[in-house]
């Protein structure tokens, strides 16, 4: 987004900014329609493809991770990138190039280490302290201006570790997503209906997913991303919705936006596992270390209570975890053991691990 616009919106009220941005997206969309000679109903292409005639998979996907320049985000990106490089070249992997979409609006010192695309954050105050609202805006800007050779995109997050080479899980125009147990559109009917009115269809149209992890055709994400941003901002603006959804608001934003475009995701439980709840890595593709792992020395989970042994990313808000973290005591699930081993392998091999990204 050109700087002129940013300067302009900074001076005006946040509410105007929402409509200003919305107008901007309308302009983007229009431009797109004109350039690609598309009709105004992009969802139709997706519905048409609901037959089984989709092309085979095996097409490469671009790995895109949205991030900030905070040390907390940086060290996670470095670990993720380490495993990306290892897994990308293994047989059975459809991974293509990698981009860190940095939504801090300025470069940082990891630019040399990994391919990074800098985008603007939302105008001041618009995220209301909820930083992940920047994600849809980051994707909109990146898709608009970057050259992406792959036809598909994996939307990933910094706390993802790739555990095994993974194929393109999307099938033609059907994206693949991970079903989160706590995303339950049908149980939030009153709220959801504000953004997905009855005439759009049943609430079961809305997948129990967030934007990540998702593998999706680039052209479909281009359609969804502005709506995702639009819906997320409107959800955040609405106090009742903000309260009901809390930190998962932007996930609902993506789920609703994709339904508005008539896009259904193939739900893949094996897309990712989340220690300490998932006990074994098995055949999953990503370890997501969003939950703290707390155990007694007897190997008992003490979730919610600081354990005698613990690994929690939030212990390292201002700088990276040290190299060679101690392994969990006997009795702790394999998923947690593997997570710590993989963190240790990455940190042992990344140059200047403990000095480069401190705040
Ligand atoms: C991958 O990204 C690099 C930049 O890091 C670029 O030079 C290269 O052309 C890209 N390759 C493909 C196949 O997109
Ligand atoms: C954003 O939401 C508003 C309100 O529903 C709608 O009028 C507008 O068309 C939407 N814009 C985009 C780009 O989705
Ligand atoms: C890692 O720590 C263990 C003790 O927890 C120690 O035995 C081992 O030598 C250390 N490894 C490295 C490479 O520092």
TrEMBL record:
Name the domain of life this protein comes from: Eukaryota
**Key words, A-Z:** Glycosyltransferase, Membrane, Transferase, Transmembrane, Transmembrane helix
> What does the record say about its membrane topology?
Single-pass membrane protein
Q: Which GO terms describe its cellular component?
A: membrane
- From the Swiss-Prot or TrEMBL record, give the protein name: Hydroxyproline O-arabinosyltransferase-like domain-containing protein
Indicate the transmembrane segments per the record.
Answer: 12-31
> Where does the protein principally reside?
membrane
Instruction: Reply yes or no: does the keyword Transferase apply.
Output: yes
- Extract the Pfam families matched here: HPAT
Entry's localization field: Membrane
UniProt entry tagged with the keyword Transmembrane helix: yes
- The species is Eucalyptus grandis
The Hydroxyproline O-arabinosyltransferase-like domain is annotated at 61-354
Q: Which InterPro entries match?
A: HPAT-like, HPAT/SRGT1-like
Q: Which GO terms describe its molecular function?
A: glycosyltransferase activity
């Amino acid at each position: 987004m050109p700087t002129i616009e940013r300067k302009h919106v900074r001076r005006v009220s946040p509410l105007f900014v929402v409509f200003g941005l919305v107008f901007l997206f309308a302009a983007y969309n229009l431009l797109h329609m004109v350039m690609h000679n598309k009709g105004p109903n992009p969802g139709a292409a997706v519905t048409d493809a609901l037959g089984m005639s989709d092309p085979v998979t095996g097409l490469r996907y671009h790995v895109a991770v949205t991030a900030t320049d905070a040390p907390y985000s940086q060290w996670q990106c470095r670990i993720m990138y380490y495993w990306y490089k290892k897994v990308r070249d293994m047989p059975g992997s459809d991974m293509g190039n990698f981009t860190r979409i940095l939504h801090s609006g300025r470069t940082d010192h990891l630019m040399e280490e990994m391919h990074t695309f800098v985008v603007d954050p939302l105008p001041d105050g618009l995220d209301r302290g909820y930083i992940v609202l920047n994600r849809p805006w980051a994707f909109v800007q990146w898709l608009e201006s970057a050259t992406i050779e792959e036809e598909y995109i994996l939307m990933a997050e910094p706390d993802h570790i790739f555990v095994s080479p993974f194929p393109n899980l999307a099938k033609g125009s059907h994206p693949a997503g991970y079903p989160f147990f706590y995303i339950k559109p049908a149980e939030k009917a009153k709220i959801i209906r504000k953004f997905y009115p009855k005439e759009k269809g049943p609430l079961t149209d809305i997948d129990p997913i967030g934007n990540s992890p998702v593998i999706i055709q680039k052209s479909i994400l281009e359609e969804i991303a502005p709506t995702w941003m639009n819906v997320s901002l409107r959800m955040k603006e609405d106090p009742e919705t903000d309260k009901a959804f809390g930190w998962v608001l932007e996930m609902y934003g993506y789920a609703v936006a994709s339904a508005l475009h008539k896009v259904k995701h193939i739900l893949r439980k094996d897309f990712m596992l989340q220690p300490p709840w998932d006990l074994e890595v098995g055949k999953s593709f990503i370890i997501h270390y969003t939950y703290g792992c707390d155990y007694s020395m007897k190997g008992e989970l003490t979730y919610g209570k600081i354990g005698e042994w613990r690994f929690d990313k939030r212990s390292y808000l201002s700088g990276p975890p040290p190299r060679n973290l101690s392994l969990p005591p006997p009795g702790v699930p394999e998923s947690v053991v593997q997570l710590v081993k993989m963190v240790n392998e990455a940190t042992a091999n990344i140059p200047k691990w403990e000095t480069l990204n401190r705040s």
